[in-house]
Amino acid sequence: MRIKADRDVCVGAGQCVLTDPDVFDQGVDDGIVWLLAEVPGPEHEDKVREAVSLCPSGALSIVEE
Ligand code: SF4
To answer: What positions does the domain Divergent 4Fe-4S mono-cluster occupy (predicted)?
Structure first.
């Protein structure tokens, strides 16, 4: 699993960070998403899928590898 985050689409709502703070972070100034792990470990897969479904802007997507 590889995560893609479109920083042009993100609205900084922070749902992803609340869902898995080991994988997602936000810029201090703009609140826009940063990926801490583009390829998360298997133990994060469920949370990452939840974060993708919760993201209100559709900025997050998953590429299966
Ligand atoms: S949940 Fe979506 S809109 Fe909110 S910070 Fe994360 S990527 Fe951006």
So the answer is: 1-64
